[in-house]
Each structure stands twice: as structure tokens, then as C-alpha cells.
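FORM 7B - TANDEM STRUCTURE REPORT

SECTION 1: FIRST PROTEIN
SEQUENCE AND C-ALPHA CELLS:
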Amino acid sequence: MASTYSQIYIQYVFAVKGRVNLLKRPWRDEVFKYISGIIKGKNQKAIIVNGMADHVHAFVGLKPAMPISDSIRDIKNNSTNFINEQKFLKGKFEWQEGYGAFSYSHSQMNHVYQW
């Protein structure tokens, strides 16, 4: 086969260490945009990145060459550095260990996007 076709839609969910409400407005939106850029920089499709003050949801169109664990590692490491370099907080920012990764079919995309 000359090319590869895939439809792999994954929603990542990961939390601030201790589930503390640290992702404050208005800079929280800057973090979401930055995370979207990390995803795009890895040649993945950032469908939507959003969340609350204590956690993030990233809905991603994943290419088969990118392991989920590598994608999450890159997102969390790079966004941690961004938050700390921007000095959005007085102390050191950290994500909680672990994550959730949930797969969806193409027909479920709109529902996940709206959620």
C-alpha cells in the first residue's frame, strides 16, 4: 500500500498535581493554545484543547506512528516548562502523574467536541 490511512481519535485527560485549581483565567487559555501547538508540532491533529482549573481535556487525531504515552509525555513536559517560564504562578507548577486516554469513533467526534 502506497500510503497509510487512519482514523484514531483519542481524548487525553490529565490533572494538575493534587487536583489543585491552578489553571486560572485568562492565562489558562494561553496554556490550552500552547498545548494545541505541541500537538500540531508532533504532526498530530489538535481537534480541541480545553478544561477546567484543575484538569485538561485534549481531543486529538492521532497518527499511528505516535504512541499515546509519548504524546502525553511531550504535552505534559513542554506545557510544564511553558507555565513555569511564563511565571503564571508564584511556585513551581506540576502535572499529576498519569492520565486518561479514551478512544472515539468518527461518528462520536461532534459529541466529544461539544462536551
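SECTION 2: SECOND PROTEIN
SEQUENCE AND C-ALPHA CELLS:
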Amino acid sequence: MAELIIEELQTGNGASAKPGDLASVHYTGWLSNGKKFDSSVDRNQAFEFALGAGEVIPGWDQGLVGIKPGGKRKLTIPPDLAYGPIGAGGIIPPNATLVFEIELLGIK
């Protein structure tokens, strides 16, 4: 079983994100072959979710704990912490490893 890989690209300031926080992020996601499949940056629309509440894939819930506002992380997420054997919406194939760059804009 592959592991979640967390790379700190930029350190933020202030309080660290914890489960239960409402996180506002910008993100871009790629398949492991480098094909971009989604980006809030391209849409110029931040994405909000409750950290640790299961609203996003497990790799996000685990990989963003402790990030601070203004921080940016690269997450390499194995299939069992992403969309697994099912994939998603014809965009993400079954058993895909995903790579995300995620910037925390703020927490509430």
C-alpha cells in the first residue's frame, strides 16, 4: 500500500488547520502522468470544506492538517486515499495516484 506524500512548498503564518476548521483553499490536481484534471485557480474560485469531515478525499483530510494560512503543500495521494478502484466521473481513472498543489487561503 502506497503512502501519502506531503511536501511543504511554502510555510504559512498563524494558527494551524485542524479537524473541524472550515478551510478555504486554491488547488490544482494532476494525474500521476502530469495531466491536469481540475483547478480552482483556473476558475478563480476558492474551494471551502470542513477539514476532517469526510467532505473531500481522505488524502486531503490527512494531508492538510497542520498547514497554516498562506502555506502551500504538494500532496501525492495513493488510490486508497483518493478515489480507489472506482475512479471519478470519467475524469479520474480507477486506481489513480493523484498529485495536488494546495494553498490554504484561510481557516474559520
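SECTION 3: OBSERVATIONS ON SECOND PROTEIN
The beta strands are 5-10, 22-31, 36-39, 47-50, 72-77, 98-107.
The CA atoms of residues 88 and 94 lie 8 Å apart.

SECTION 4: SIGNATURE
Preparer initials: ____
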